[in-house]
Amino acid sequence: METRKYTLTMLVDNEPGVTARITGLFAGRGYNIETICGAPTANPKMSRITITTLTSPPLLAQCMKQIQRLVNVIKLRDMTGEEAIKREMALICVKTRPKDQKKIETIISDFQGRILDKGQQHFIFEVTGDELTVDAMLDQLAPFGIKKLARSGVLALYREP
């Protein structure tokens, strides 16, 4: 059966153990979580959790039914389609040699990244964009040597009408 990447977002009660129950549901049924992000919303009593997973449509439907049964889940949506705005943030530390610094600064600028720390042999910077944009930037920086990388995982919101 064909698998593809899905993005699920859920509003949940902002209480201890909620994220653990959701991730336990995935693990207990053998679903892999590719990325997960969670934080309180504008209402401090609720959090938004966004998960990306690689699965087949029938397994996704089964997973969504099981998530909706959890007591602390207020709302669940599949954000996979085009109507959702999806972004990811990455912090990247790349090796720099004096002869490569201008090339690396140009790549960072092309992707609208922001340099946070400059050392003699490294740059640390942030970049935001969709997952493909972050991947494309990493591909361009790979020849210089990526020392460290931290990615936030996907965040998603539906467009307002």
From TrEMBL:
<dbReference type="Pfam" id="PF10369">
    <property type="entry name" value="ALS_ss_C"/>
</dbReference>
<dbReference type="InterPro" id="IPR039557">
    <property type="entry name" value="AHAS_ACT"/>
</dbReference>
<comment type="function">
    <text>Catalyzes the conversion of 2 pyruvate molecules into acetolactate in the first common step of the biosynthetic pathway of the branched-amino acids such as leucine, isoleucine, and valine.</text>
</comment>
<protein>
    <recommendedName>
        <fullName>Acetolactate synthase small subunit</fullName>
        <ecNumber>2.2.1.6</ecNumber>
    </recommendedName>
</protein>
<dbReference type="GO" id="GO:1990610">
    <property type="term" value="F:acetolactate synthase regulator activity"/>
</dbReference>
<keyword id="KW-0028">Amino-acid biosynthesis</keyword>
<comment type="pathway">
    <text>Amino-acid biosynthesis; L-valine biosynthesis; L-valine from pyruvate: step 1/4.</text>
</comment>
<comment type="subunit">
    <text>Dimer of large and small chains.</text>
</comment>
<keyword id="KW-0808">Transferase</keyword>
<dbReference type="Pfam" id="PF22629">
    <property type="entry name" value="ACT_AHAS_ss"/>
</dbReference>
<dbReference type="GO" id="GO:0009097">
    <property type="term" value="P:isoleucine biosynthetic process"/>
</dbReference>
<dbReference type="InterPro" id="IPR027271">
    <property type="entry name" value="Acetolactate_synth/TF_NikR_C"/>
</dbReference>
<feature type="domain" description="ACT">
    <location>
        <begin position="7"/>
        <end position="81"/>
    </location>
</feature>
<dbReference type="InterPro" id="IPR004789">
    <property type="entry name" value="Acetalactate_synth_ssu"/>
</dbReference>
<dbReference type="GO" id="GO:0003984">
    <property type="term" value="F:acetolactate synthase activity"/>
</dbReference>
<dbReference type="InterPro" id="IPR019455">
    <property type="entry name" value="Acetolactate_synth_ssu_C"/>
</dbReference>
<dbReference type="GO" id="GO:0005829">
    <property type="term" value="C:cytosol"/>
</dbReference>
<dbReference type="GO" id="GO:0009099">
    <property type="term" value="P:L-valine biosynthetic process"/>
</dbReference>
<comment type="similarity">
    <text>Belongs to the acetolactate synthase small subunit family.</text>
</comment>
<comment type="pathway">
    <text>Amino-acid biosynthesis; L-isoleucine biosynthesis; L-isoleucine from 2-oxobutanoate: step 1/4.</text>
</comment>
<dbReference type="InterPro" id="IPR054480">
    <property type="entry name" value="AHAS_small-like_ACT"/>
</dbReference>
<keyword id="KW-0100">Branched-chain amino acid biosynthesis</keyword>
<dbReference type="InterPro" id="IPR045865">
    <property type="entry name" value="ACT-like_dom_sf"/>
</dbReference>
<dbReference type="InterPro" id="IPR002912">
    <property type="entry name" value="ACT_dom"/>
</dbReference>
